[in-house]
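To the structural biology subgroup,

Please find below the input and predicted structure for UPF0173 metal-dependent hydrolase AML91_11950, which we are adding to the shared reference set this quarter. The sequence is reproduced verbatim from the submission form. If anyone notices a discrepancy with their own records, reply to this email rather than editing the shared folder directly, so we keep one authoritative version.
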Amino acid sequence: MKIIYHGHSCIQIEVSGKSLIIDPFLRGNPAAVTKPEDVKTDMVLLTHAHVDHILDAAPIALQNNVPVVANVELAGYMEGQGVQTIGMNIGGTVDFGFAKATMIHAFHSSGITLEDGQKAIYGGMPAGFIIQAEGRTVVHTGDTGLFGDLKMFGELYDIDLAILPIGGHYTMGPEHALIAAKWLGAKQVLPIHYNTFPPIVQDADAFVRALGEEGIRGTVLEYGEALEL
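Predicted structure (tokenized):
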């Protein structure tokens, strides 16, 4: 299993010659090294409706002729952009053949700001995904604060990699992400959702050192870099 970090919260997982991409936000990220038109994938997964998670979902899905997987409200919005969708909800699992995705809850908000900037429409519940493939289990928590049910997920699943936001301000910061990693019992942690905007600037290397002090392996990836599980 190959995990590619495209920046912000955008992760691509490659298994068995197939791939899925989560929360594609490339055009809006000046540091991104991958363009939406260069992405080849078999599924597009969305954790919630904020623009920094859905901006490139429709273009990528359309050019690859693949569905967007999201909560039913967000899936309905994406359908309005001519995209195939698989609507699901918290606790549900979808089997893609090459991987399974279970939608878990997150503590955040989720709304789609309309073009006039004066109104936001409901984007369904924010979520994360537990991805299982090739005997590996990866959790992408989406945008979230720290919450106690992360302990439950750690009891339910043998988590090989936890992909956690550390930016603070909009999500949990490094201190809470460290607790989340311990609660999840993750063997390895990949920090995301930091340094994209001024309010979420963090020292990811310091976070990884703190993980190491707790006996947890952490990895900082630059945009476009990958790790193997």
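Summary notes: The mean pLDDT is 97. The first strand starts at residue 2 and ends at 7.

Regards,
Lab coordination
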